[in-house]
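sorry for the late reply, my laptop died twice this morning and i had to redo everyting from scratch. anyway the thing you sent over, i finally got around to it. pasting the sequence first so we're on the same page, its 157 residues, then the predicted structure underneath. double check i copied it right bc i was rushing
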Amino acid sequence: MIEDTAFQHCLEAAYRYLSYRPRSEEEVRQRLHKHGFDGEAAEEVIFKLKEQNLIDDFAFAQFWKDDRLSFKPKSKNLINKELRGKGVAVEIIEQVTKDIDDEGNAYELGRNRVRALAHLNYPDFYRRLSGYLGYRGFTHEVIKRIITLLWQEKERC
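ok and here's the structure:
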């Protein structure tokens, strides 16, 4: 009876944690351990949640990628790093992020930012926009190409 009660409390805690947004298996495991549930109860709950399709690392990684590209665009490398930090397997990360277009995303971010930087000279424009794109994880090569392209477009207008 005590084991059933511990399992039920553990399951309820997991349901609450999953009610806010999808989570990776490792996030759920860490949360349950943090709240004092022993390894056996936590593993049983994780198994049950997987059976119910409430934990699916592939679906979670897809959600995370889509969310990042829609609301807080970041580079492929930074999304990979975030997913690794959430305990998603490397194979799943590679599969989910293989179609991310860093140049296209950097261009869209930069284009949206150009209006606010239009009054600046080239060195200041470059510095501010490269910092903005660099913070989002884009490589120096991508940043340089995108800034050059955006500066040329700005000059033509």
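The chain has a mean pLDDT of 93.
thats about all i looked at so far, will dig more tmrw
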